[in-house]
Amino acid sequence: MKRRGLLIGLAGLAAGAGCTETVRPSGPRTPPRSPEPTSTPASGLVVVDLIDEQDDAGNLLVRVTVENQGDASQSGTVVVDVRAGETETTVSRSVTLDSGERREVALSTEIGYDAFAGDGSLQVDVQ
């Protein structure tokens, strides 16, 4: 019985000595992004990859790779919705691809990359 009292006393002493600090998680603030399925997969144009990076002016640049998985030439619009804190913006670019063709489309935004990396999200779609 005295052993239990001793263990409780040692636990209280360790807590008073600062041994119970909380450990903060490590790693990136935002997980790696992956392309979401497009809302109109029947069109044949799909997002197969995307990369977000900083452009020369320090703003967010989104590189979207689109592929035509249909049997004929297809046209569509790549639409990127970006949110960073209270700021929201939408950028878009038209694209026409032959059957089986894949192309990267770069879309510049006016949102600072640091603001986006700290508290941002994006959604990519082909319409």
- Strand fraction equals over 45%
Number of helices, counting only DSSP H or I runs of 4 residues or more: 2
What CATH first level of one domain would be assigned?
Answer: Mainly Beta
Structural class: alpha+beta
Largest sheet: 3 strands, antiparallel
Please give the alpha-carbon distance between the first and last residues: 72 Å
CATH homologous superfamily caption of one domain: Immunoglobulins
Shape: elongated
- What quaternary form is this? single chain
- Residue share in helices? 10-25%
Order of adjacent strands in the largest pleated sheet: 1-2-5
Series of H and E elements: HEEEEEHE
Give the number of DSSP strands.
6
Poorly predicted runs are none
Alpha-carbon Rg, integer: 24 Å
The CATH architecture of one domain: Sandwich
Mean pLDDT: 80
Could you characterize the architecture of this molecule?
The protein has helices spanning 2-16, 113-119, and strands at 45-54, 59-68, 74-84, 87-97, 102-112, 120-126. The mean pLDDT is 80. It is elongated. The strands form two sheets. Strands 1-2-5 form a three-stranded antiparallel sheet. Strands 4-3-6 form a three-stranded antiparallel sheet. A hairpin with a 4-residue loop joins strand 1 (45-54) and strand 2 (59-68). The protein has a domain at 45-126: Immunoglobulin-like. The chain has 127 residues and is of the alpha+beta class. This is CARDB protein. Residues 18-42 are annotated as: Disordered.
